[in-house]
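Our preliminary data section would be incomplete without showing what the modeling component actually yields. Below, a chain of 176 amino acids is followed by its predicted structure, encoded as tokens that our downstream tools consume directly.
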Amino acid sequence: MAELDTSGGGKKGGKVRSKKASTRVDLTAMVDLAFLLITFFIMTTTLSKPKAMDVTMPRKDENQKDQLPVAASRSMTILLGSNNKVEWFIGEPGKSAPETINYGKDGLRKTLIEKGKEIQASTGKYMVVLIKPSDKSNYKNLVDALDEMAITKIESFAIVDILPAEVELLKRDGNY
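Predicted structure:
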């Protein structure tokens, strides 16, 4: 607490001088309060947790007998090429003409939503998306494709090795 020292010095005689008041402020309580506030805010603050998408990757076993067949009519293949370009087609490579699109809401997202609704209406089942990154695509392209899967709520998707025929499609269209 604050104290007021009014002692004049201790001399009994001599000139009478006015007493000088010296003030001394005790800051102990304020320091205690500051540490209590710091401790309170440290204990009540939540640190940001890293956001990660759960992706289950298959094992590279030689005998993969537990694979379920998927009809080509409800599978969409996304080929990740160079220069942030994406090619997609429904069904098997070479049987339907691939289309080149960009990432984003007017490109990949719009296509996933439209084709998902079409396949749902025609087959009554959900669309399965196969994501196939090429050697020329970068890590950001794969993350963007996975983000679009989460945004459009695609229930079944897989990251698969690209086939040589699909690499030829990318080369033919100038996206490799």
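Residues 72-172 form a domain with the Nucleotidyltransferase; domain 5 fold (CATH 3.30.420.270). The helical segments are 28-44, 108-123, 139-151, 164-172. Preliminary results of this kind motivate Aim 1 of the renewal.
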